[in-house]
Amino acid sequence: MELHQLRYFVAVAETGSFTRAAEREGVTQPTLSEQILRLESKDKGIGRQLFDRLGRKVVLTDAGHVLLGHAQGILAAMGEAERAVRDSTEGGRLRVGAIPTVAPFLLPRAVTKFHKAHPAVQLQLKEDLTERLLADLLSGDLDVGLMALPIRDDRLHVEKLFTEPLVVALPPKHRLAAKTEVKLGDVVDEPFILLDDVHCFGDQVLSFCHRGGLEPRVVCRGEQIVTLLAMVAAGQGVSVVPEMAAVADTAKSCVYRPLGKPAPTRTLCAVWHKQRYRPASLRAFVDVVQNP
To answer: Mean pLDDT, the chain, as a whole number?
Structure first.
């Protein structure tokens, strides 16, 4: 078996098409098909049929399924070896992912501090939902992810960073704005503005309410915390947001108050793959995030 044959095999398996695989690999379809046949041949290959050709549809055989995981692992290991050598001479690259309820509040200051100490490291940032960031960590497309607990996958290392309280956001002239602390029961009858349910944070807020036997009257769900806070500032309702969002609101467009006991919190963590190559800069970046 040769590496380029494994690349072509994985491309066909992942795209389900010889045509799309050839386009992905930048070769002609006859060239790719010939290399797959050589990989399958008894003389120069593994002597097993890897694909069932069903017209335009291509399906892995049992032997193909067995080979796929090994081939993906081999190609990933080669890529990581090349990257490790490159990082040792060029300063390297660190690919960081963060969930939307963390990225705009935590990353700007952390990235600025990190760049001052490590100017040769190229940072690539991605903001996305937890589920997609985890998939990128498992596939090797990200080096580290910043997200909230719980994370349950034995293939991933999870390191707690810090725990932060959640606070209630009120319109500036709200009847409760003069209080130093607000109980959730004080606002449960108010119109609630929350993050969309594709975000884990929105569901965390609802779960906290439900544990207290409360059912908030949700009138609006949005994609971004800044949008939620703009709605609150306009007097359209109240919301519960991470403390870092309140700190970032330097214009103080809303009034932020701690919630009474039991105060809701969330724990942020750094996540990376246990077995994949870890750039030396990963540890330094995590330390900066933990101690901004």
So the answer is: 90
Q: From CA 241, how far away is CA 226, in angstroms rounded?
A: 10
| 2 contact partners, CB below 8 Å, separation of at least 6 | none
Q: What pTM, to 2 d.p., does this model score? A: 0.73
DSSP β-bridge partners for residue 125? 96
- Answer yes or no: are the C-beta atoms of 172 and 276 closer than 8 Å: no
Q: What is the pLDDT of residues 196-254, one digit of tens each?
A: 888 889 888 888 888 888 899 999 999 999 999 999 999 999 999 999 999 999 989 99
Instruction: State residue 208's pLDDT score.
Output: 87
CA quadruple 169, 171, 172, 177: dihedral, nearest 10: -60
Q: What six digits make up the tokens of 256?
A: 């932020």
CB neighbours of residue 217 within 10 Å: 11
- Please tell me the distance from the alpha carbon of residue 95 to that of residue 228, in angstroms, as a whole number: 29
Three-class secondary structure of residue 154 per DSSP: coil
**Residues above pLDDT 70, as percent of the chain:** 97
DSSP state of 22: H
Among 115, 184, 106, smallest CA distance to 145 is for 106
Nearest to 86 by CA among 98, 74, 94: 94
Strand partners, 241: 167
Quote the pLDDT of residue 111.
96
Does 271 have pLDDT greater than 60?
Answer: yes
For residue 2, list its beta bridge partners. Answer: none
Q: Are the C-beta atoms of residues 228 and 194 closer than 8 Å to each other? A: yes
Which residues, including other chains, have CB under 8 Å from residue 266's CB and lie 6 or more apart? 148, 149, 163, 164, 166, 201, 204, 242
Distance CA 250, CA 74 (A): 50
